[in-house]
Amino acid sequence: MLQDNHRLLATVAVLLVVFLGPGSRTARCEASVFWGGLSPGPHLVGFEAVEKYDYSRTFREKYYYDGVPYDGERARPIQICVWYPASPRDDATPLVLSEYLFPLPEDSRFFDILSQLQARELGSLFGLLGNNRALVQDMINLPVSAVSEAPRLAGTFPLVVYFANSQTGISEDAVLCEYLASHGFIVATSHSLGAVGLTPDMLPLDVEATVRDRELVLGHMRDYSNVNPDRVGLIGRGYGGLGALIMQMRNSDVDAVAAVDPLFTYRPLLEFAAGSPFYDATRMQVPLMIAYPSGVDEMFDKSLVEDLPYSDRCFFGFPMARRQNLSSYGIVAAIGLDTTGAADISSPSYEAFCRHTLDFMKAYLLDDSSSLESLNSPAMGAGDIVASVLPASTPPPTEAQFSRLIEADRIEKAVDIFYQLKKSDPDLVIFQEATLNALGYNLLTANRLREAAIIFKLNTEAYPNSANVWDSYADACIASGDTQAAITCYERVLEVLPGDSAVGPGIREILQNNATQGLERLRQ
Amino acid sequence: MTPSDSEYTRRKFLATAATGLVSAGVLSLSPGAAAAQTSKEESSTASGRIVHRTLGRTGINLPVVSMGVMNAGNPEVVQASFELGVRHFDTAAYYQFGRNEQMVGSVIGRLGARNETIIGTKILTPQQRTGLSYEALKAKTISSCEASLGRLKMEHVDILYIHDVRDSAPLNDPGIIDGLTELKKQGKVRSTGVATHAAMADVINGVVAGGFFDVVLTAINFTMADDANLLAAVRNAGEKGVGIVAMKTLAGGARWPNPASRQDYTSSTITTAALKWVLRTEGVSTSIPGYTNYEHMREDFSVAYDLEYTDEERSFLSDNSIRLGMGFCRQCRSCLAACPDKVDIPGLMRTHMYAAQYGNLFEARATLDALPAERGLKKCIDCSTCVARCAHSVDIAGRIDELKTLYC
C-alpha cells in the first residue's frame, strides 16, 4: 500500500515534469494537480501574505498566571492571505502546498503563532493521509496554482472574504480560492483563531473574534487599489459559515454569501447559531448559497435558513461519501490514498461545487446574467446534485433606511413603500407608533413641515385608534397653517381617547385638555 | 587565508595532540587530530579570527562552526548567527514540513546575503524514496529540489543532500544520481551530498568509493571516540576530497537536563569540549550544532575562534564514565536482535532524542507515528522487562519507560 501510494505520487510528479517541465514557469494560471478537471480562468493567480496586529484586542494576557509580566506582543495577530489576479509574467513559479500551510510572514513575531497553526493543519493532513509522514512530505511538495511575488493586475475586481473552518487552515479551500482568483476575484482571508486560544470553540466570544478578524481583512483590502469595495462576497466553511452569515448581518457592503457545509445547517448547533448576540435573521438580505454534502449524515437541517425570509436562498447538495470531499482536502486524500495510479485524479462533485460557487459570485458580484441564468437553470441540479431555491420576501425598511429616504427628499417613495407593504400584509407592523411619532417631531423641529405632516398622517393610518398620533398630527397641521385639518385631528383625539387603553391617566388628561383647548382656539 | 594569517600553529596542535595521547579518555581516541588541524585548508587564528576550512573538493571555504537550523523557530537567531559570522546554514525539506527552509530563505533574502552564505538542504527521506521506478525517482529528485528552492526563494542550493542514508543503495541509485546530475546541469545544485546517522562508516566509505557525491553530513561526536571505523572513514574521506560536515556533535549531552550524566561540568564546558573534539577530528571540515537561542549560538560559535582545549574541557573529555553516561544512541541497530517483539528500538531512541534532548515534541510524535504499528511503542506496553541492551550504554529500558509516560 505504501509503495503503491508513493508510486502514484511519483506518477503525479512525472506528469508535472512532463507537462510543466522542470522548474516550470508560467505566464498564466496553470491548473495544478489539485484542480482535477477544473479549468482556470484567464488570469495568473498571485498569492501574498501580510501581517497586522489588531491593537484594539489582546490575544495574550499582560501577565502570566503567576504574575510575571509577558514581554512579547500581546495584540491580536492577524495574517491576511490574498489570492489575486496577477499580471502575466514569464518567470512566475508556482508555490508548493507547504507554503499554504505556513504562509511566510514578513514580521518575524508571527513565526510562533503561524508555527502552531501549521501544526494544527498538519494534523488534518496526517489524518487525511493515514498518519503517513512520507505521504504528507510528498504532498506538501506538490505545486499549487498560485505564484508568489507577482504584480497585481490593473483594473478593479470584486472582493471575496473567506472564512475557514475552526480547526483547519487555508489549504482546505485553496483550490476554490485560486479558481475564483483566476476568474477575476480577489480572495482574502485570515487564519481561524479563538478569542484567546489557538482554535475557536463553540462560544459566542470565539465566533465574534473570527468575525472581527475578517472585518479587519475587509478593511485592509479596501486599501488595495484594484479592489472594488462595492462588490463584496463572503464564503464560509463549517464554523466559518456562521461567521460569514453574521458578518453580512452587520455589514451592508456584503452582496452575497456562500456557506459551505455550514454549522447553521447542523441540527444540534442550530440553537447555538441563532443564539449569537449578533444574529439577526431580518438583516440577512442578500443572496445566500448553501452547499452541502448530500447523504453524509441525517443532521442536515434547513430550518434556520428557512427563517431568513429576506434572502434569496439556493441549496446545492453534492453527492459525496465523505464530508471532506467538499473541500480541497478531498482531492488531497484522493491523490495520496488512491492506489489506482490514474493520471486524471478528479473529484467531480467538488469541481461542480467550485463551478457553482463561481457562478454564484459572478451572478451577484459582477451582475453576470448568464451566470445567474445558469445558476437557476435545471441543469444546476442535474445528475445527482440536489438543488432547491427559497425566494426572498421584500424586507420592510428599517427606521434608519426610512429616515434616510426622507432625508434624501424622497418621502413620496418612502410613503409608497409603506403603503405597498401594508397592502401586501395589512397586519404587518412596519414601525412602532412611537418610532413614526419621533420621526415626525424630528422633521417638525427641522422645520420640514410638509414631510412632518406626511409622517404624522401615516402614523394615524397605521394606528387610527391612538389618541396621541392624532394629537401629534394636529401639531403638524397647526404649524403648517392647515386649520381645518387640525380641527379634524383634535376631534379624532376626543373620539378615540376613551377607548385608548395605552394612555395612562396623566397623559389622558393632557390629551383631553390639549384637544379641547385646541378646538376652542381654532374655531374662534 | 594564508598560513601566515594563522596563529594556530602546527606546533600548538602537536602539543595538544600529545596531551591527548597520554590521557585515558576520548582525547586519545582521535588519532588524526593533529594532522587534521594542520591541513593546508586550515586558516585560523586564536586571537579573534574565525577558523575556516575548505569543504573537500567543493572548494567551499567555511567557518568551522555552522548552524544546524532544524529546531530553530526564531528567524532572528538565524540573522544573529549571520551577523556573528556563521556562513553555512543547514536545513531540510523534512524539518518543520518546509517551514525551516522558508525561514532560512527569508532571513538570507532579507539580509541580501545569498552570495555570502552556503545553504545546505536535504530531500527524499528513506520512506519517500522507497519503491520507485527509475523515472519516478529521477522526477521526484528534481521536483523535491525545486520545491525546496521555492521555499528557500533561491535559484540554487550549495549542497543538496539525500536525507537519512543508512546503507549504500541510494549512493548508486541511477534515479537519484541522474536526477541530481540534471539539477547540477541546470545550475540548481552546486554540490551533492548524503546525510547519515546510521551505519555512518559504511555510508562514508560508499560515498568515497562511488565518487559521485561531494559531501557527507554525518553524525559524529566524542561518545563515538572508540569507533575506529568511523574515524578512519572520516579521515579517508577528507583525504579523498569528500567534504565532511559533522552533526549530532554535542551528543545531546550539553543541554540535556540530565545532571547525572554531566557530573560537575557546566553546559558550556560540555558544549565547547564536544565541539572542539569533533573539529579536531581529522577529515571534519565544519559542524552544524543545532542551537535555537542566542546564548547557545554564542557558546557554540566561540569555538570557531579557538580549537585548543581548556583544562576543564580536557578533564571532561578524559572521563570515560561521562561519555558512557551521555548514552548517545548512534543508531547502530545492534540492539534489534535482543528484542523478542522486534520493536524498532533505534526508532524509539530517536523519538526519545527529539522529545527529551531537542524538546521538539512535534518531531517526536511524527517519528513515533512513522514507526510500523507492529514494531512501535505499543508493543512495549505489555512488556514489563525490557531485555534489549545497548553496546554503548544507552538506557533503552529507561527511555522506553519515559516514552510510555509521554505517549501511552
Q: What is the topological layout?
A:
The complex is a heterodimer of chains A (524) and B (408).
Chain A: H1 2-20, E1 44-58, E2 75-86, E3 94-96, H2 98-101, H3 111-128, H4 133-140, E4 143-148, E5 157-163, H5 174-182, E6 186-190, H6 204-221, E7 227-237, H7 239-249, E8 254-260, H8 270-274, E9 288-294, H9 303-306, E10 313-319, H10 328-337, H11 348-365, H12 369-376, E11 386-390, H13 399-407, H14 411-424, H15 433-445, H16 449-462, H17 467-479, H18 483-496, H19 505-523
Parallel strand pairs in A: 1-4, 5-6, 5-7, 7-8, 8-9, 9-10
Antiparallel strand pairs in A: 1-2, 2-6, 3-4, 10-11
Helix pairs in contact in A: 6-7, 11-12, 13-14, 15-16, 15-17, 16-17, 17-18, 18-19
Chain B: H1 10-22, H2 33-37, E1 52-54, E2 61-63, E3 67-68, H3 75-84, E4 88-90, H4 99-111, E5 118-123, H5 126-129, H6 134-152, E6 157-162, H7 174-185, E7 189-196, H8 200-210, E8 215-219, H9 228-239, E9 243-247, H10 259-262, H11 267-279, E10 284-287, H12 294-302, H13 311-318, H14 320-326, H15 345-357, H16 361-370, H17 378-381, H18 396-407
Parallel strand pairs in B: 3-4, 4-5, 5-6, 6-7, 7-8, 8-9, 9-10
Antiparallel strand pairs in B: 1-2
Q: How would you explain this protein's 3D organization?
A:
The complex is a heterodimer of chains A (524) and B (408). Chain A has helices at 2-20, 98-101, 111-128, 133-140, 174-182, 204-221, 239-249, 270-274, 303-306, 328-337, 348-365, 369-376, 399-407, 411-424, 433-445, 449-462, 467-479, 483-496, 505-523, and strands at residues 44-58, 75-86, 94-96, 143-148, 157-163, 186-190, 227-237, 254-260, 288-294, 313-319, 386-390. The model of chain A is unreliable at 17-23 (pLDDT under 50). Chain A is built from 19 helices and eleven strands. Chain A has two domains: 2-390, Alpha/Beta hydrolase fold, catalytic domain (Rossmann fold); 399-523, Serine Threonine Protein Phosphatase 5, Tetratricopeptide repeat, CATH 1.25.40. In chain A, helix 15 (433-445) packs parallel to helix 17, helix 17 runs antiparallel to helix 18 (483-496) and helix 18 packs antiparallel against helix 19. An eleven-stranded mixed beta sheet of chain A has the order 3-4-1-2-6-5-7-8-9-10-11, sandwiched between helices. Chain B has 408 residues and is of the alpha/beta class. Chain B has two domains: 3-321, TIM Barrel (Alpha-Beta Barrel), CATH 3.20.20.100; 336-407, no CATH class. Chain B is built from 18 helices and ten strands. In chain B, helix 3 runs parallel beside helix 12 and helix 11 (267-279) packs across helix 13. The radius of gyration of chain B is 20 Å and the shape is globular. The termini of chain B are far apart. Mean pLDDT of chain B is 85; it is low at 1-24, 28-41 and 43-47. Chain A binds chain B through residues 2-3, 6-7, 9-11, 13-14, 16-17, 22-23, 93-96, 98-99, 101-102, 104, 108, 111-112, 115, 118-119, 122, 126, 131-134, 136-138, 140-143, 148, and chain B through 73-76, 93-94, 96-99, 102-103, 106, 125, 127-128, 130-133, 135-137, 139-140, 142-144, 146-147, 149-151, 153, 182, 186, 188, 362, 366, 369-370.
